[in-house]
Specification:
Layout lengths: L1 E5 L5 H4 L12 E4 L5 H11 L3 E3 L17 E2 L4 E4 L2 E6 L2 E2 L7 E2 L1 H10 L1 H6 L5 E4 L18 H10 L3 E4 L13 E4 L2 E5 L4 E4 L1
Parallel strand pairs: 1-2, 2-3, 3-4, 6-9, 7-8, 9-10, 10-12
Antiparallel strand pairs: 1-13, 5-6, 11-12
Length: 196
């Protein structure tokens, strides 16, 4: 399965220079947040591909106008062609905002899903907006990752962990891919395609 993951900035490559052929070998699109609802709706409509998403810390507008035709996987396990995606969007709380959480709040969100995760036999792809603490996150509070995400990786050992929030242009040492135990971590900033 070929997965296109996107986050944080609308890609001119797709939006301004759209060509359906660019999606010929893509099976599914996964958004890791902080993208305009119109952009997600456009991609889903023009490609006819399933588009899964979680919320970023700047996605408050989704409350009034969510992306049309797209599938929100917040606090859910969504299975597509046998691959289980689990979503936990949002960032560390640094100001008032709908999709911002303290470490304890994010841990509570995760704990509420334990029965669901047990029933699904776990998941294959963790989809978040923020990274895990200590895994290419920032030192400032707005870009600090969640400690509970590393615990989730330790417990469920998904094949992939997709996140955004830490833009690749924040510095030269921000990796696109890294490995933690048996999980490949991918920063979805703008656009990235990988084979599952």
């Amino acid at each position: 399965m070929k997965i296109l993951t996107i986050a944080d900035i609308e890609s001119e490559y797709f939006w301004d220079y759209f060509d359906k052929k660019k999606f010929d070998d893509i099976d599914i699109i996964v958004s890791c947040g902080d993208l305009k609802a119109e952009y997600l709706t456009f991609l889903e409509t023009m490609t006819c591909l399933p588009l899964l998403y979680v919320h970023g810390n700047h996605d408050d507008k989704y409350e009034d106008k969510p992306p049309e035709g797209c599938i929100c996987i917040e606090d859910k396990v969504y299975t597509y062609k046998g691959v289980r995606f689990f979503g936990l969007g949002g960032s560390m709380k640094y100001k008032k905002g709908t999709y911002q959480y303290t470490e304890k709040e994010m841990e509570r969100r995760f704990k509420k899903q334990r029965i669901k995760l047990k029933m699904s036999g776990g998941f294959d792809v963790l989809v978040t907006h923020s990274p895990a603490a200590g895994h290419s996150d920032g030192e400032d509070l707005p870009h600090k990752g969640f400690e509970v995400f590393e615990k989730i990786l330790d417990i469920y050992e998904p094949k992939y962990f997709l996140h955004g929030h830490v833009h690749m242009n924040y510095g030269p040492n921000i990796p696109r891919e890294s490995i933690y135990n048996n999980t490949k971590i991918i920063n979805a900033y703008e656009r990235y395609v990988f084979d599952y």
